[in-house]
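Researcher: Quick test of sequence recovery. Tokens follow.
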């Protein structure tokens, strides 16, 4: 199983780039970045900063020569699928063929309300997504795309240049059966949140979705993530407990985390991403925790 870094989108560009360069030097697999226009506001004050996802991925791709570049995930409620396909392909060319287009149906209520984007009810939202992922899939592969749906209409639409390797991976992050069926039909990668027990249950639904559409599940790369709380001491564990989310968290010292991560590998997860928002309150703390995880936990999977 490989590992990836996932900085929050409110980090400075300097910290973001430094983390990508550190991950490159330390043989991480990918650099993930969330595609949101704002962070959710909370009771403590207004929403924080948010850098734009595809600009960051292109910048990292130009500066760092090896990491895969993954959007997590670009919502079709905010972006037209043709624009997303162009952004991903341009980033792919800038990086020499390392872009992964994470595609989503949209969910963050605050940004849709603040900027006036429509956020339909779940049924119509997934119907729009179903059209969007087919459009992107076909643009990567066909010379002129005709598509006449409820949300999108293309007439002999050209798409050039194609991605560096002829196409590029589409990733969908989901746990719902309908979205999983769309993933199995159109995508190359499936991603989901959860601790090992939750991912085990979702994997069963994923396998059923693949069977329903006649797709070999072995053809899709699988990735997962959870909130990681590295707590080598009892004091650190006690401090982390109020922030632990059931079914979405890994908590423990080095051996405990090794054991939990090994469960993902046994489930067939190819890549596990470590988000930085549980790793410390300052750039120095976050980098020190990444380094400790790399040395004491992730090294067991080399």
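Model:
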């Amino acid at each position: 199983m490989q590992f990836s870094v996932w900085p929050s989108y409110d980090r400075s560009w300097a910290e973001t780039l430094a983390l990508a360069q550190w991950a490159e030097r330390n043989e991480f697999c990918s650099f993930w970045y969330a595609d949101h226009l704002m962070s959710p506001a909370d009771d403590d004050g207004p929403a924080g900063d948010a850098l734009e996802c595809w600009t960051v991925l292109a910048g990292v791709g130009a500066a760092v020569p090896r990491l895969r570049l993954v959007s997590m995930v670009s919502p079709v409620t905010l972006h037209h699928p043709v624009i997303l396909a162009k952004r991903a392909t341009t980033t792919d060319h800038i990086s020499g063929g390392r872009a992964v287009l994470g595609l989503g149906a949209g969910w963050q209520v605050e940004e849709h309300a603040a900027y006036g984007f429509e956020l339909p009810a779940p049924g119509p939202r997934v119907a729009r997504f179903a059209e969007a992922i087919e459009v992107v899939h076909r643009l990567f592969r066909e010379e002129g795309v005709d598509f006449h749906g409820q949300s999108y209409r293309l007439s002999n639409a050209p798409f050039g240049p194609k991605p560096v390797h002829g196409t590029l991976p589409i990733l969908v992050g989901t746990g719902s059966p309908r979205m999983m069926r769309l993933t199995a039909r159109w995508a190359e990668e499936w991603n989901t949140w959860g601790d090992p027990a939750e991912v085990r249950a979702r994997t069963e639904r994923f396998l059923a979705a693949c069977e329903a559409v006649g797709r070999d599940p072995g053809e899709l790369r699988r990735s997962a993530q959870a909130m990681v709380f590295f707590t080598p001491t009892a004091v650190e564990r006690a401090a982390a407990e109020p922030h632990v989310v059931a079914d979405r968290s890994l908590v423990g010292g080095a051996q405990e985390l090794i054991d939990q991560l090994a469960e993902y590998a046994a489930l067939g997860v190819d890549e596990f991403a470590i988000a930085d928002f549980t790793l410390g309150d300052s750039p120095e703390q976050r980098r020190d925790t990444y380094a400790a995880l790399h040395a004491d936990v992730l090294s067991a999977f080399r």
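The longest helix spans residues 122-141.
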